[in-house]
Design a protein that fits this description.
CATH class: Mainly Alpha
Largest sheet: none
CATH superfamily: Phosphotransferase system, lactose/cellobiose-type IIA subunit
Helix content: over 70%
Structural class: mainly alpha
Number of helices: 3
Distance between the termini: 55 Å
Radius of gyration: 17 Å
Number of strands: 0
Length: 106
């Protein structure tokens, strides 16, 4: 596997992990487990940081004049990163809403 494929697969893996943690966090918040939900969001953010490190490497290479070949796998991995970032952001908002309305019921 060449270096670029490794970067692409790291993007997919870490982005997917982030999305999974975020979705699990929403489920925990729905059950009223806000501490667990927040722990899962922290894990999701760590995974996004790992994905973004791979992503920034691609950007730095291109900025340095290195030719970056745009492949379907690269586009797919970039899409994973973008959508996972959105899912994590929305999960935080959903958890906040669950928490807010849980407090209002009590």
């Amino acid at each position: 596997m060449d270096e670029m494929n490794e970067v692409e697969f790291n993007l997919i893996m870490h982005s997917g992990n982030a999305r999974s943690y975020a979705m699990e966090a929403i489920k925990e918040a729905d059950k009223g487990n806000f501490e667990k939900a927040n722990e899962l969001i922290i894990e999701a953010k760590k995974e996004l940081v790992n994905a973004q490190r791979s992503h920034s490497g691609i950007i730095q290479d291109e900025a340095a004049g290195k030719k970056v070949e745009i492949t379907l796998l690269l586009m797919h991995s970039e899409d994973h990163l973008a959508s996972s970032t959105i899912v994590v952001d929305l999960a935080k908002e959903i958890i906040n809403l669950h928490c807010k309305y849980s407090k209002e019921e009590n």
